[in-house]
Design brief:
Length: 246
């Protein structure tokens, strides 16, 4: 598999996502966007774009924060992506950010996404790469270590409490570069963009330098099988359908 392209800033990455979403505008009607696993906040700024935002999440505490404080959802659904029925060919865009790694049988959820998308619709996925140094360490360490890391390295004092990450991880085989490519190959999907986030560097000062050095060492010990340059992956995927000229 070819090396992943790296994004140099969150602004650059977000702008790419927003550009692809704007390309979904066709007949002047508001875009139907599903945020699958919506958490506490909407990450994108779609200025001048008319859209209806539906959010679904299994975490009631996080969804309550979203509904009562941020108030940026048009429709809020408390439900499980593995069994909820949202109808066929309903959304121009499905946005799924750091959710799939927390789901057992994530492949079945991706199949549901393809059913919910309209032809030529976009599936935007963000996942940690299990074959990065940090992804590998997450896979082999217990959940309490993840909470410790969030609280005392990243400085997120509410980490692990209701409504706040980190959540337990599973990393089904589809939640990987190889898994996503295979899924797209057999489900009529085209990968429009695949990026790794080279800009995200956890910690501060000496701690940040130490983490980076540690990643390099672990990557070298793995003979380069584990990536140190990035941690997370972004996929912009299109469900193939008839051209708009047809």
């Amino acid at each position: 598999m070819l090396p992943v392209f790296l994004s140099n800033s969150e602004t650059e990455e977000t702008a790419l996502i927003e550009t692809h979403i704007r390309e979904q505008i066709d007949n002047g009607e508001p875009l139907q966007i599903l945020e699958a696993g919506c958490g506490q906040c909407w990450e994108l700024k779609l200025d001048s774009v008319r859209f209806i935002l539906t959010g679904i999440d299994l975490d009631k505490a996080a969804l309550d924060i979203r509904k009562k404080i941020n108030k940026d959802l048009d429709v809020a659904i408390l439900g499980d992506l593995r069994d909820v029925d949202l109808g066929d060919k309903k959304y121009e865009v499905i946005y799924n950010s750091f959710v799939l790694e927390h789901i057992q049988n994530a492949n079945a959820v991706l199949v549901r996404f393809t059913r919910w998308l309209k032809p030529n619709g976009l599936l935007i996925i963000r996942i940690p790469d299990p074959d990065s140094v940090q992804g590998f360490l997450t896979r082999v360490s217990p959940h309490w270590v993840h909470i410790f890391y969030y609280r005392y390295v990243l400085g997120k004092e509410n980490a692990g409490t209701p409504g706040f990450a980190p959540y337990k991880t599973y990393y089904d085989p589809v939640v990987s570069r190889v898994g996503i490519h295979k899924f797209c190959d057999v489900n009529n999907l085209t990968i429009k963009a695949e990026l790794g986030n080279a800009y995200w560097k956890p910690g501060h000062g000496i701690m940040r330098s130490a983490i980076l050095a540690f990643k390099r060492v672990v990557s070298a010990l793995s003979l380069g099988k584990l990536a140190w340059q990035y941690t997370d992956l972004l996929y912009i995927i299109q469900l193939n359908g008839p051209s708009r000229a047809d």
